[in-house]
Amino acid sequence: MVRPVVLQGASLQLLNGLQREFPIEPQPFRTVGRQLGLSESNVLERLRSLRERGVLGRIGAVWNPGAGGAAALCALAVPPARLAEVAQTISDEPGVNHNYERGHDWNLWYVLTGGDARRVRATAASLAQQAGVPSLFLPMVRAFRIDLGFDLCGPHAPAL
User: Fold this and answer.
1) Contact 136, 75 (CB under 8 A)
2) Whole-structure pTM value
3) Helix axis angle, 40-52 to 9-18, nearest 10°
């Protein structure tokens, strides 16, 4: 059984701040910490703890087409009894940005990024083979600008 994780204060502010305008510089976590009144080591320790507790899966960029990398939206048709197992396999792949369940035959969707289109396609094929289920591969042709940030501190924030 998955236990709910309760977050508050600086951890919520930290996750909130990492969703947008991540500082591109040699010591980004020092800058993030300064903005929150935390030391760089405290920021890194909080992120390690959040990762170990399953709250945080990855911090990384998503490439725009033609900007030096590639991305794809992928879907798998996973038997419901294997969904958690396959989702963990997908989450363990470093190039996976996020994955989520949908109420459809194609029930596990994920965003995959990599250095080039060939690598992204090969990784998606490998993940589908590991899962042993049908897959869809939808490479990014053009970017759609949608805001996927979620305000974790505001009045409509999810209960974490």
Assistant:
1) yes
2) 0.60
3) 90
